Amino acid sequence: MRKLLIIMAVCFTAFSMTACLGDKYDNSTNYHTITNSEKSVIVNTMAGNYSGKVTLGYASSSAIVDSAKAEWTVKTDTTIVMSYPVELLANFLDSADVAYDALASAPAQTLTFRYAIPSIVYSYVWSNYWGVADYIPVLYSDDTAKTFENLGYSFTMTYDTYYDAINNGYYNFEYYNNKCQGYVRPYALTITDAAGKTRSVNITSSVLSVFSGSK
């Protein structure tokens, strides 16, 4: 799958469409309106069950911290349901931590995302990406926190999916040739023990997990 440089020509929501185009680009030769029939082709092409892995690393480095198998389903209603391996979060605990085993052995948790297909893009974006089945929608999470329990501990992972694409130079979701990848950034973790005592775990802001796989 190709790693894309961000293209500011893409306008992802109706309210931002005017701002993206402006008077300078108010010319039908400069942009392509994605029709409903084209959107139907896009969602049906991407739809399916995927298997692959989630890789944990840092945005500023190519070094891999850890990885785990994962599965997700892309649906035609523009939602994505993922079985996310929360065991990866144990990398933020010392192996001697009393909650380490509970987190490292916790079952995968279901996360639900939505993806957005733009209504209008610049013509060269359509010609080089959308029009040749290289789809680059924006991924949003329907919730930003996931609480789960294991071995007497309760964990809450707070995360986002829109990983500062403009400043970091890539989209947060892409489909190409029956493969897809996306970004989920866990940025906070709290642990509550059986006595009800809660503590926070420090997660550096540069941590990033990438899910990638194929149908």
List the helices and strands and how they pair.
Elements: H1 14-21, E1 31-33, H2 36-46, E2 48-58, E3 64-74, E4 79-84, H3 100-104, E5 109-116, E6 120-122, H4 123-128, E7 134-135, E8 138-141, E9 145-150, E10 153-160, H5 165-168, E11 173-176, E12 179-192, E13 198-201, E14 207-214
Antiparallel strand pairs: 1-6, 2-3, 2-14, 3-4, 4-5, 5-8, 7-11, 9-10, 10-12, 11-12, 12-13, 12-14
Output the keywords.
elongated, disordered N terminus, 215 residues, two-stranded antiparallel sheet, alpha+beta, 5 helices, 16% helix, 14 strands
Account of the protein in words:
It is a single chain. With 215 residues, the protein is an alpha+beta fold. It has a domain at 47-115 and 137-214. The chain contains five helices and 14 strands. It has helices at residues 14-21, 36-46, 100-104, 123-128, 165-168; strands at 31-33, 48-58, 64-74, 79-84, 109-116, 120-122, 134-135, 138-141, 145-150, 153-160, 173-176, 179-192, 198-201, 207-214. The strands form two sheets. Strands 2, 3, 4, 5, 7, 8, 9, 10, 11, 12, 13 and 14 form a twelve-stranded antiparallel beta sheet that branches. The protein starts with 13 loop residues before the first helix and ends with a strand. Residues 1-27 have low confidence and may be disordered.
**Backbone shape:** elongated
Count the strands?
14
The chain-level mean pLDDT equals: 84
What fraction of residues sit in β-strands?
Answer: 35-45%
Count of discrete alpha- or pi-helical segments spanning 4 or more residues: 5
